[in-house]
From TrEMBL:
A family per Pfam: YfiO
Organism per entry: Phnomibacter ginsenosidimutans
NCBIfam families assigned: OM_YfiO (TIGR03302)
Membrane listed as a keyword: yes
Keywords per UniProt: Cell outer membrane, Membrane, Signal
Name the UniProt record assigns to this protein: Outer membrane protein assembly factor BamD
InterPro entries per the UniProt record, alphabetical: BamD, BamD-like, TPR-like_helical_dom_sf
Gene that produces this protein: bamD
Boundaries of every Outer membrane lipoprotein BamD-like domain copy: 34-200
Length: 273
């Protein structure tokens, strides 16, 4: 059944392409534009796009140019061609800054970057661009109804960046690179101090430094365990009501006992000498 459905779709596409080719061969640009608009209204964006691209050089500067440019951009957007749609929306508000659709086009440019934002594991360059453009839009159109939507999307994108940073820091920890993990979790906490998981990140800083001290040479352990105590004190100061406080208290107590033991052993060794 699926095979016959696929054949039907291919046949429809071929017929449609044939019709578009006939239209493109015509020298009647008024007819071409009318047909492109018909395809657009019917949500046949690929066909509309092909004809719009053909007529754009001819109608440039005419009364139809602005609306055609607008629909041309949306043809790409509605086909999920966000890269080209972004460029066209940018071109629209640059060419028609006084248009009633200029604000929408500027927002849609930023939204196209938002749509290109990948999974947290991947390169987040499009995400950073999206945040920049959405923030710019929110700043320059603070009274717009779209400004609130832009800020909501920024929060979502920042969460994605936070997840990526967390996974990177956690990978260091899982691989046993505890000093790197401690540094990465500290940086994560610095970048997202208001995160709902801020106390968890701080606990991971403590755990990382604890494991780093535990696996250090004996003559370095006391100094590195002192770092653990400092981080525990900072946690208690910053997150007095955290549900993770018991874990921190445990690390603090264990670390104090270890430091005391190390110092006692060092004192006994000094007496023997």
């Amino acid at each position: 059944m699926r095979f016959f459905v696929s054949l039907f779709l291919v046949a429809v596409l071929l017929v449609s392409c044939s019709d578009v080719n006939k239209i493109l061969k015509s020298n009647d640009y008024n007819m071409k534009l009318a047909k492109a608009n018909e395809y657009y209204d019917a949500k046949k964006y690929m066909q509309a796009q092909l004809i719009y691209e053909d007529v754009m050089p001819v109608i440039k500067g005419s009364a139809d140019y602005e609306n055609t440019y607008y629909k041309w951009a949306y043809c790409h957007y509605n086909q999920k061609d966000y890269l080209n749609a972004e460029n066209l929306f940018k071109g629209f508000f640059e060419n028609f800054p006084n248009s009633t659709k200029a604000e929408e086009a500027e927002f849609m440019r930023a939204y196209c970057y938002y749509k290109q934002s990948p999974k947290p594991e991947l390169d987040q360059t499009p995400t950073l661009k999206a945040i920049t453009h959405l923030q710019t839009f929110a700043n320059t159109h603070s009274t717009s109804a779209r400004a609130k939507e832009a800020l909501t999307m920024i929060d979502e994108l920042r969460m994605k960046l936070e997840i990526k940073e967390f996974k990177s820091a956690d990978l260091y920890y899982q691989l046993g690179f505890y000093k790197a993990a401690a540094t990465a979790f500290t940086e994560l906490l610095y970048n997202y101090p208001d995160s709902e998981k801020a106390d968890k990140y701080k606990l991971m800083v403590i755990r990382s430094w604890y494991k780093y001290a535990e696996n250090s040479y004996e003559y370095k352990q006391a100094e590195r365990y002192e770092t653990v105590l400092n981080e525990c004190a900072d946690f208690i100061d910053r997150f007095p009501d955290s549900k993770l406080s018991d874990d921190v208290t445990k690390y603090k107590s264990e670390t104090q006992n270890i430091i005391k033991k190390i110092k006692d052993e060092q004192a006994q060794a000094s007496i023997k000498r």
